[in-house]
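Handout, page 2. Input:
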Amino acid sequence: MPVWFLDLDGTLYADATGLWAVISHRINLYLQQRMGLSAAAAQQTRQRWVSTYGTTLRGLMAEHPHLADPAAYFAFAHDVPLGKYLQPDPRLRATLLQLPGARWLFTNADAPYARRVLRTLGVEDVFAGVVDIFATGLWPKPKPRAYHQALALSHARASEAVLVDDRWENAAAAHREGWYAVWVHSHTAAPARRDAVDAVIPAIYALPQQVVQQVQSEG
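Output:
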């Protein structure tokens, strides 16, 4: 039976909601205030850190540990009225309930924020648990330690694990770890990127139709 690990931001809800754009802006503001950066410099720093370390927080911890306060970072970044951007999603709930096996949320965010989003979407009870950034020892996807810890917490084997994520880097890393990797991507992708994952779907709602049968046949 597969064990599903589903990403949160950009996966369970689409970027078109505007929520991630607001959170991203607040992360930039956090760097501006903590490091004295201009808006442009904060954005450039974030891009470099995400490329190098996986997340902005990990970059801050690596290069400016004296400024790194993970709890404060997430409290500031996620201080957003979720109801302004999200609402209960019955279609998402029906989609998730069609996935056989346990379902876990696997996110580089913190659990309090993740649970707020799940409650707002009306799907919190669908998940067996949340693997957040603190549960992985502050190691984010796509770092191998994050995947190893997710398996340990869920008591799953890599051969059973299915990652569904909108970031190609995260999906490709899961594939390298022996997981079944599903990339949520609505645009045309280069063949090399498609070949680095097991499946590409345009949105989370396509999971039952395009992935479940293939996962079960391979399992």
